[in-house]
Amino acid sequence: MFINILQLTFPIYMLQIYDRVLSSYSLPTLYVITVAAVVALIVMSTLEFIRSRLLVRCGVAIDQALSRDVLDQLIKKAALPGAVQANQAGLRDVNLVRNFFGGNAIFTLFDIPWTPMFLAVIFFLHPLMGTVATGGAVLLIILALVNEKLSRKPLDDANTLNNYSMKFVEASRRNAQAVNSMGMLGGVTRRWQGFNDNVMKLQTQASRRSGGVQALSGWIRQVMQVAIFGVGAWLTLDGQATPGIMIASSIIMGRALAPVQMGIGSWKSMIEARGAWQRLKATLGGLEQKDSMELPDPKGELAAEHVTFALNNSFILRDINFSLQSGESVGLIGPSGAGKSTLCRLLLGIWPASGGVVRLDGANVYDWDQSRLGSFIGYLPQDVELFAGSVADNIARLGEVNSEEVVAAAKRAGVHELILALPKGYDTNIGEGGVVLSGGQRQRIGLARAIYCLPRLVILDEPNSNLDEEGEKALLESFSHLRAAGSTLIIVTHKPSLLAGVDKILMLKNGQVALFGPRDAVFKKLLEMQNKQA
């Protein structure tokens, strides 16, 4: 508020110079108004500096308030069924909003509401000059609305297509080996080039339209300066105004119209910031916030009650019923596509069931606070993903490294000696995705991460993939450690030798429970079924 009021300093100073000082030849008056003007300008500059610093801090505060929540939601959404791979678009949107607060475009939003005040001052000096200035402001506002109409859609389309292009690049990067080995690089680059060409076309279209409107607005503003001087000179010659009023009106009109023209010039950044904010609202509001009551530490009792799961109106699991006591182990078997991995995700609370409920110690597993439940859960997915960092960091799940527990987990997974053979042992940086490790090494370190601190519920999805004979032997020994610790264990496998020590077998077929019961009884039933078919 005070900044915009103080912007009247120079026009008022010029008005006093022309109408008071020059006509009276009063040096004392000149000294007084000059000192007053300088002091006012110092105050205005100080306030502008403070405002700029506050807006930068506001942008940083927004970043700190949103970044973590946005990342949480991106990762949670990526874990949902049918979701695309998480990307950094949400975090880029946070950066856009933060940079908007730290840039010059936001000052336009603060200054535009003061345009009517400046116009009112010109009306006070002379109604005709106020009418001329208001006409110019109306023309520029109309141009701003036209600019919005012409620029918004191509910019929105360009941002949408650019995000899709970034996802395509990320997918290509993840599949780089297949792309290079099978000669797909040309097709990948051509497809990306098509996306990029369309993005550039849309952005160029928006820039051309905005540039044309901006050039027209600049011309109108210059014409208005000519008009205000012309009208002011005519009024002065007619005795209705003074030279000071003419000069002051011209300066004030420049102040009044400048924010509107600046708004047209920075319209692209405003649209981008607004779009980023809307996407952030959608990201943060897209998932239900679960109010999780504090529950006792789980013991590992697991039950599926009439669990059904559908994706895109297609049922993957139907009416799944079984229960496990704490410390029991079960082998989850069945043909490919039977729904084994899907069931694992439901049992872990990663995905919500379409019908029925999965209970951990009697409570719906999807209602547990995942940040707290995670320390009691061990999970080894089919595709093991490790993080850039040390071996110890990965085994400790990126938390505070407890050296004793890390080493104990590695020994239980039979990977301790393998880790010691690495260049820096547990402190070896394995690179993004564990790139410096072999598939078997990643699998075994992933197993150590899954059984870190002996969780109460451990689910291993095809844990023997990428393992050699020595690795499978270590895997079987880890099962013994988990059973001895009383962990509830679920093993998804096609290999009967891994099921030697399990208590029960759960067989899925076509998304339904085909067999469930004690291991020997289920194997006997399977043998009878095979004999009948033979």
Automatic annotation (TrEMBL):
Signal sequence residues: none
GO BP field: protein secretion by the type I secretion system
Molecular function in Gene Ontology: ABC-type transporter activity; ATP binding; ATP hydrolysis activity; ATPase-coupled lipid transmembrane transporter activity
GO CC term, one of those recorded: plasma membrane
Entry-linked CDD domains: ABC_6TM_PrtD_like
Bilayer topology term: Multi-pass membrane protein
TM region positions: 29-47, 100-122, 128-146
Keyword Transport in record: no
The keyword Amino-acid biosynthesis is annotated on this UniProt entry: no
Location relative to the cell: Cell membrane
Domain ABC transporter: 302-534
Keyword tags: ATP-binding, Membrane, Nucleotide-binding, Transmembrane, Transmembrane helix
ABC transmembrane type-1 domain: residues covered: 1-272
Protein name: Type I secretion system permease/ATPase
